[in-house]
Amino acid sequence: MAAAARAALPRPFLPLHSSSRHSYRLAIPPSPAPRLRGGGAATSVTAAAAPLQQQVTTGRLGDVIEAQQFDRAALNEIFEVAREMEAVERGSHGAPSRVLEGFLMATLFYEPSTRTRLSFEAAMRRLGGEVLTTENAREFSSAAKGETLEDTIRTVEGYSDIIVLRHFESGAARRAADTANIPVINAGDGPGQHPTQALLDVYTIKREIGTLDGIKLGLVGDLANGRTVRSLAYLIAKYKDIKIYFVSPDVVKMKDDIKDYLNSQGVQWEESSDLLEVASKCDVIYQTRIQKERFGERIDLYEAARGKYIVDKKVLDVLPKHAVIMHPLPRLDEITADVDSDPRAAYFRQAKNGLYIRMALLKLLLVGH
C-alpha cells in the first residue's frame, strides 16, 4: 500500500487502564468509529485504503508489553491466527503472502539475540513486509553517544510502522510504548519480561500436550533473572487448575512478585530442590540457563548456581511419556545433547513456533484479524 494511504489509516485506541494511553486487548467486534492511538478522532480513509480499513476496524492490538495484558479471549485469537500462519509459512495458500506488503518493521536490539530477532524478521518477510534492523544497538547506535531511548524511538517511528525492542533495562519497553505513536513489541527488557516468548511457550504447550487447563509445569534454572519464566508464569495463570513447581539454586529463586501474583490468581505453586521428583509429576519441564550476564562481578555466585540442575537421561527416565521438555534457548550444559533425540524434547519445535506467533502478532498489530 502507498505510504500516503497507510498514513491516513486511524489507529484504534481501546484503553484498558486509565493510567495508560495504549490498548492491550484485542477488539473482536467491529468498531464503527476507531480512535487514533493518541486519542484523537478518526480521520477519513481514501478509497484506495478501503480493503485494509475493513480489516483494521475488526480491531488491533495496541502494543505488546507484558504477558499479563492478555485475557483468554485474546490468547485464543492469537493462537487461532498462529495456526493460520503455519499454513502460510508452508505455502499451502498458493502465492507468497502479501498481507503486510508496504509495511516496515524496525528491530532495535540493545542486547544480543538470535532466535527472537531472526524470527521477527522472518515473520515480517514471510508476510510480505520489509525490515529495518540494528543489532547491538547499545554499542553501534546513537545510544553510544548518549541519546535517550525516548529520542531514539521518536526518530525510528518516523521510518517504520512498528518497532520491536529488546533492551537491557526492565521497563524500557513501556517507556518506548508511552513515547511512540506506532505499535511497540517488547522483545525482552532486561530481567523484566519477554511476552512474545511466553505466547510461543503457551502455544507450544497447547500444541504438544493438547490442553492448557490442568497443566503441571516445572520451571527450572535461573528463575530470578529469567524474563522468560516470569512471563510464562504470568500467562499460564490465565488457565484453570495450574500447578507450578519452582526448581532453582538458592541464589536465583523465583522472586516474590511472581509468587504474590500466582497467589492472587489462585494458582498453586511449590518450591522444590528435587528435580527428579518434580519431573515425575509434570506435564512440562521448562529448563533455563543460569544467566552469567546478570551476575556482574559475582562470578562466584554464578559458578555456584551453574550445573546444579541438569536435564539428562535420568530425568527422561522419570518423565511421563506424554510430557515435554522445553527451553527458551540458548542452552549451555543444562540439557545434555543426548536428550535431543527423545521425542519429548520439544525445544526446537518450540523455537519454530516463535515464527508463527510473531507472524500472528504482526498481522494483528498492523492490519487486524
Task: Provide tags for this entry.
single chain; 369 residues; alpha/beta; five-stranded parallel beta sheet; Asp_carbamoyltransf_Asp/Orn-bd; Asp/Orn_carbamoylTrfase
Short description:
Residues 63-206 form the Aspartate/ornithine carbamoyltransferase carbamoyl-P binding domain. The protein is of the alpha/beta class and 369 residues long. The protein has 14 helices and nine strands.
What's the structural blueprint in terms of helices and strands?
Blueprint: H1 3-7, H2 50-56, H3 72-90, E1 104-109, H4 115-126, E2 130-134, H5 137-140, H6 149-156, E3 162-167, H7 172-179, E4 184-189, H8 195-209, E5 216-220, H9 227-236, E6 243-247, H10 256-264, E7 268-272, H11 275-279, E8 284-287, H12 299-305, H13 313-318, E9 324-326, H14 347-366
Parallel strand pairs: 1-2, 1-3, 3-4, 5-6, 5-8, 6-7, 8-9
Helix pairs in contact: 3-14, 4-14, 6-7, 8-9, 8-14
Structure description:
Residues 63-206 form the Aspartate/ornithine carbamoyltransferase carbamoyl-P binding domain. Catalyzes the condensation of carbamoyl phosphate and aspartate to form carbamoyl aspartate and inorganic phosphate, the committed step in the de novo pyrimidine nucleotide biosynthesis pathway. One of its GO terms (molecular function) is aspartate carbamoyltransferase activity. Pathway: Pyrimidine metabolism; UMP biosynthesis via de novo pathway; (S)-dihydroorotate from bicarbonate: step 2/3. It contains 14 helices and nine strands. It has 369 residues and is of the alpha/beta class. The strands form two sheets. The protein has a five-stranded parallel β-sheet with strand order 7-6-5-8-9. The radius of gyration is 21 Å and the shape is globular. Residues 1-59 have low confidence and may be disordered.
